[in-house]
Amino acid sequence: MSSQRVPIEPQRVDAPLTQSATFLVVSVTSNPDAIQTVRSTLAGLDSLAKNVSIRDLGAQFACTVGIGSDIWDSLTGLPRPAELHSFREVKGAKHTAVSTPGDLLFHIRSERRDLCFEFERQLMDLLGDAVTVVDATVGFRYFDVRDLLGFVDGTANPVGPAVPSSVLVAEEDASASGGSYIVVQKYTHDLHAWKTLPVEQQEKIIGRTKLENVELDDAESGQRSHKTLNTIEDEAGNEHDILRDNMPFGSPGSAEFGTYFIGYTRRLWVIEKMLERMFVGDPPGLHDRLLDFSKPLTGTTFFAPSASLLASLESD
Ligand code: HEM
Keyword Nucleus: yes or no (predicted)? Predict the structure, then answer.
């Protein structure tokens, strides 16, 4: 992705929605060589991606890496992105957005599951005992980009030039420019309870119709929909979008039905505001009803630096 406003090369943050994705979160160990191993692996990430993507150019392979706040200084030795900090728990009256550990996130995407698998295999070979895996979730595309609740997910994402302006840090934080904040949360759903709700009620919770994905009007007062709670304006009345690439995951055999939420943003405060509105509610007390059927098991924040910064890591 190239941005008019960002002269350096970002990572493939805006890679297209794919059929398959792996969300790999790892922690860096205290092994004496760990930092150096991770640094050289990240510096070579682009070559590693090429090893795999060339094997089927039509499969839209892409991998972006995010670096967590706790490891940023020792790993990069570079100025910290202005807003970078660990995920802050959000405690509402009924539901909590938990904060869980993780130093690195690899968001691996492709039309083909085998390419994601192969990349993850080669990556783990390189990282070896420099990391321990916190979570590895394999997501899949479900029909017409639906989540397992049955709704089309991702419609309001920015498109075209609105992508870099929503997602990439620019002149406001020069040393972090071309990078992007990432928030992930792994949710599981109580599908049984969700299915007992009439479709009309489900639609009110989401803020769109189920079959045709048509936007419903915002509620004038009282309980707001997921869509409305996640529409964020700043004090000047400007609306701030984020880029989501959520994926269903799970296994009917073990009664696991989930959504892996991933949001990329130029301004971390925007996603934090969304979480506050969802979990605490707006007005406070009227939380996002989606949470009565969806429980976050994880919550972690990362910063995906520009590709240029990643490539420079080895020589530091
Ligand atoms: C259980 C997890 C989640 C599910 C199943 C889910 C599903 C959906 C669906 C179906 C829509 C409507 C279609 C669309 O525009 O994409 C939507 C909209 C949206 N969601 Fe979520 N979502 C989840 C979690 C989150 C979280 C944690 C955030 C932010 C922190 C978020 C932010 C948004 C935003 C920004 C929109 C678009 C609002 C607009 O219309 O401007 N979602 N989500």
Answer: no
Residue numbers of the domain that contains 231: 20-315
* Chain CA centroid to CA 199, Å: 28
> Residue 299: inside a domain, yes or no?
yes
Cβ count near 62 (within 10 Å): 20
Q: What 3 state SS string does 80-145 have?
A: CCCCCCCCCCEECCCCEECCCCCCEEEEEEECCHHHHHHHHHHHHHHHHHHEEEEEEEEEECCCCC
Q: How far is the CA of 46 from the centre of ligand 1 (A)?
A: 30
Q: What count of residues does the chain have? A: 316
Please name the residue whose Cα sits nearest to atom 9 of ligand 1: 153
Q: Answer whether residue 90 is part of any domain.
A: yes
Whole-model pTM above 0.85? yes
Instruction: Please give the DSSP secondary-structure letter assigned to residue 239.
Output: B
* Nearest one of 206, 234, 238, 12 to 106, comparing CA atoms: 12
Residue of 165, 174, 163, 183 lying closest to 306 (CA atoms): 174
Question: How large is the average pLDDT for residues 23-43?
Answer: 98
Give yes or no: 173 in active site: no
The answer to whether 11 touches 306, Cβ cutoff 8 Å, is yes
Strands 20-28 and 96-97: unpaired
Residues 271 and 53: their CA atoms lie apart, in Å, by: 31
Q: So what's the pLDDT on residue 7?
A: 57
Rounded to the nearest whole angstrom, what is the distance from the C-alpha of residue 227 to the centroid of ligand 1? 6
Number of domains in the chain: 1
Q: State the first-to-last Cα distance of the chain, in angstroms, to the nearest integer.
A: 25
Query: Would residue 1 count as lying in a domain?
Result: no
Contact 115 CB / ligand 1 (< 6 Å): no
Q: What is the mean pLDDT of residues 85-96?
A: 98
| 5 belongs to a structural domain | no
Please pick, among 14, 103, 147, 153, the residue that the annotation labels catalytic.
153
Q: Is the CB of 96 under 6 A from ligand 1?
A: no
